[in-house]
Amino acid sequence: MFAAWSFGQDRNYPSAGKPRKPQISDTIKASVYADNWFMLYINGELVAVDSIKFIPHNVVSVDILPSYPMTIAVMARDNADPKTGMEYANTNIGDAGFVLKFGDGTVTNGKWKAKRYSWGPINRDTRNPRVENLPIPEDWYAINFDDSNWDLAKEYPEDVVDPKQSYFEHDFKGAKFIWTQDIALDNTVIFRHVVTSPPDGKTRTDFSNLNNVVPDSPPKRPKR
Most CB atoms within 10 A, among 35, 184, 195, 212? Predict the structure, then answer.
């Protein structure tokens, strides 16, 4: 019982040992750019979905309350026909790319895990295009999902991904575009990464258990 009350303690609030409610200043910004679409889970919870499936390519930015260790899981998809693996009315083999940056310094790079689940057209055969698929695990976003046999993601330079204007209008400094080994044929990819502690070294309050306790509210200002 005592341990449950110990998180979120702040000396600026009167009831020592009781948690406080998080403020917007406790959050960090998560910025994500995908060619073409993504869904983002943090510690097993869905936090962001790309609202545009194809084009224009957009940056999705959301405020999140970090909790460490932080398990990040992302499903990313290139806009490809599920039967042919091609796009633009089956006239083109598309490419892909994914980049992410959090306000705590978390970035995408070659240390992330990546696995393809749909790819094609097989052998780049555009005359008789076909795809291959693996069943996507129901718990691919879970904290305890086993990705130990997955390969590491591959980093790609900007000129290969060719990001659009929205990417350059946001701060992705230090983050690398990633995908699997084949950025053209691999159309559905899942990425996973665990952030053990804040990369920027800042100490942050853990509010992950807030729903199970009664927190203190900030002191009310006297009425004038």
Answer: 35
**Helix H or strand E encompassing 6:** helix 2-6
DSSP 135-186: PPPTTTTSTT---TTPEEPEEE-HHHH---HHHHTS--TT--EEE-S-TTTE
DSSP, res 100: E
Residue 44 has which token pair?
Answer: 């097993």
Question: Vertex 108, ends 103 and 109: CA angle to 5°?
Answer: 135
Task: Write down the pTM of the prediction.
Answer: 0.87
Domains recognised in the chain with CATH numbers:
2-209 (2.60.120)
pLDDT tens for each residue of 42-92: 999 999 999 999 999 999 999 999 999 999 999 999 999 999 999 999 999
Tokens at 151, concatenated: 């390969």
